[in-house]
Write a structure and sequence with these properties.
heterodimer, A: alpha/beta, Rossmann fold, Alpha-Beta Plaits, 2 domains, five-stranded antiparallel β-sheet, 37% helix, B: mainly alpha, 11 helices, 79% helix, 0% strand
Chain lengths: 304, 267
Amino acid sequence: MEYIVQTNELCKRYNGRFAVDHVNMNIPRGSVYGFVGENGSGKTTIIRLLMGLALPTKGKYSLFGEDSKSKNIYNVRKQISAIVEAPSLVPSMTAKQNIKYAALYYGIKYTDEMANTILKEVGLEDTGNKKTRNFSLGMRQRLGIALLLLNKPSLMLLDEPMNGLDPTGVADLRDLIINLNKKGITFLISSHILSELEKVATYYGFISHGKLLKEISAEDLVAECKKGIDLRHHDISKLEKALKKLGYDNLRVSPNSIRVYDEVTPLELLTKLHKEGIEIKDIRTTEMNVEEYYLNMIGGARND
Amino acid sequence: MINIIKASIFKLFRDKTFQITMIIGGGMVVMMSLLYYAIDNLSGNYALLVSTAPGSNFTLTVPINLIVFTVGEFTYGTIRNKVIAGISKTKIYLGLFITGLLFTFILVTAYVSLMVAVGSIVGGFDPSKIGGGQFIGLYIVYTICTFVFVTALSVFFASLIRAIGGSTPIVIVLLVMLSLIPLFTFLAQFATKSISAVNHWSMWINPLYMNGFYSNNIVSLFAQSDSKIDAFKQSTDMILAGILTPLLWSAVLVVSGLLIFNKRDIK
């Protein structure tokens, strides 16, 4: 597998605290890399480091095989587009003027026709002459993506791109990502909307408290999202103790239920618990989604 | 580099704050020309001298505008976009400085021309009263060097502090102080001859010395008489100091600004 972004023990420390803690990350070429993590987990900081907006405290990274400390890294970044936190637009300028402004510093010849095509691609065809200060959050997000398309990038880093988009906007963005990915553009997408991320991601990176917990392909993740068994009981702590006594450690404890991820059938579990004096009134099998998988993982990481 | 400058100029002329401050500055220029004429009977020739003092009149709108423009690059995230676009931080900072220079000279030329025009219309224009072509030529050179310094200082503090409220007072206070120092040293020289050494060193340290010296002191001393300003002889030292001091300070500020900008993260 060819990786176009690789980090090596990448660290960023703010006020003595690691925002990015010895991260070794690998983004395969052609993938849609879903970057999953809670608020403040270090996702944005990693994107900022990769784009040169922040300098690493320690460690390094490579983009398209070019070392971060090489002088050529600026040229390599010309193949990358990114939205970090929110699209950066000049509010006093119209959408087309923002496109022209970006075209000027990219060194691309601007034409009105080009602007119209790009605006149409992101569903903003009728807003070219409207000042961006009057744009909704969703429109700003779309225009931000339009600006990314200007320099025909090979890699796009999108930090929470679905923020502020209505359901139609989310669906349109999803289709746009899928289409561009088919054309060979690699994506790194950080998002809280994991249900949406699941629809586009082909590879995942899970991060928590600055540490990259796991990288996994979407296929392997599906295999790992094995079925769990949900047990409901009036005394959760008693149930938890009994399960641990029986050797089941792969648990996710909620206030009203416990989910068991260990390899066991519901019947076998009920029988064993019965022998321990625990009567279960409600049992059901479930399958994990990405969100549950992540919560399960960070639960484990926190217990460690 | 040329792409960044083109982009910055494109943005600058579409910036509402820039347009508004240009208009306010223009209005101030006309008002001040008429005020000078009403109070001191100052004509176009004197308007030329007073209009270029960077720390004492409407030209203070130049650093304010520069700060608004530079800080705007940070707050709108356009600096971030440029870094993301693969432009080196060195080029971005130099781009800010060069755009700042262009902007400064457009603004200063517009303001000075307007003030001289208004002053000349109401009071006439007689270059011989301000020392003739040679003096004016030298004075324009000092002014150019001074505004290179004003630009370097404004861009330095704006990109260091990245907030209009924080950087504007620092730059304005510094410019006013540096402009006023020559007035005190010059007047003190009349009281005691021993101050001349201080005055000598001041012109090699203070980047606004020569500009302030002429616009604050000589104009005020000679404006109300018909004496020629070049009656005060300029030594080679003074000419060199008037050119080199602001340029050297500008170089120090640009290099320091570059080093800091390269080492700092961009939000």
